[in-house]
Amino acid sequence: xxxxxxxxxxxxxxxxxxxxxxxxxxxxxxxxxxxxxxxxxxxxxxxxxxxxxxxxxxxxxxxxxxxxxxxxxxxxxxxxxxxxxxxxxxxxxxxxxxxxxxxxxxxxxxxxxxxxxxxxxxxxxxxxxxxxxxxxxxxxxx
Length: 142
What we know:
Blueprint: H1 3-21, E1 33-37, E2 47-52, E3 58-62, E4 68-69, E5 72-73, E6 83-90, E7 121-125, E8 132-136
Parallel strand pairs: 1-8
Antiparallel strand pairs: 1-4, 2-3, 2-6, 3-5, 6-7
């Protein structure tokens, strides 16, 4: 291997190590939560985002099939610091080419929950908060 390639490989290794360290600090608040419908069934797909009402800092996560999520900052740190957050739940379901029995996404989250102006979802996180539970109405519910 020539010197140019060796220097390049070492640079890539150092960069990888540096990025591997980002987000490895202690969690700053609750590191998990669950999104469910009002009947208790989990929201099985989509994403959730929390926006601080104070500084607009955002924390987001993919929603797992059991409704669980892990809020992560834009810097890769898992956890929600204490504060008040507006919440959106976004679910994109493409099913027009599937038979009804082939739909595996579970219940459908109404579109109003995908917009901060219409979701109506807020959460207050304190230092004692262990998990964050969010509940949405099912499609068609009032």
